[in-house]
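Form 7-S
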Amino acid sequence: MQSMQTEARTIKSAMLSPDEVKALNEHYRQLSVEERIRQLYKDFSADQVMLTSSFAATSAFFLHLFSRLAPQQPVFFIDTGYHFQETLDYKAYLTELYQLKVTDIRAEAWKHDFTTREQTWKADPNFCCSINKVEPLEEIKQGYDIWASGLMGWQTEHRSSLDIFEERNGIIKFYPLLDVSKEQRDNYIREHKLPFHPLVAKGYASIGCAHCTAPGDDRSGRWNNSPKTECGLHL
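Output:
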């Protein structure tokens, strides 16, 4: 497992046109999840694809698929410095179990220290997420064309409005699980005997930073008592 701030690559292909994104969606909507992942590496080279995982509640589902279908694919993990110890343990377990190539990325030390000192997750959670999640990934994603993520439409109202491919802030997002239902996800997990995050058994359905996560259904436990439902990575 690597643990470092990775430099973004300098070469990036031209952004797909809206018509090209539309054509991809029309094609991929007809495919199964596994077919979508296989097709991705026919339509794009592996070094064009950036994959991220939070190693949260049911990340084993998403990572199991890619470890089987694209074992060469590296995985980026945003280490906010505020994760539950259970998340870090789960990450280590899945990395070993699936033989993942994981690279940790994180905020500059002085910026993270500022958020700790000022407890920005209390006063301004959007700013805290921007410093510890959004900015570190911004440096990485400049070198990629496709960002593969495990979002599912049923998780939030915003996510239900997305398509399999979406142009977002200079990169094409790829959501192969977007139309997977909660029941289909759970059936896959049971069929393949995948391990849930240990906090799921304690009532955590969605898991982020320890300061901002409480037990709750779906994403109701994230940023508890706040209208905030997204960290900013997927807006």
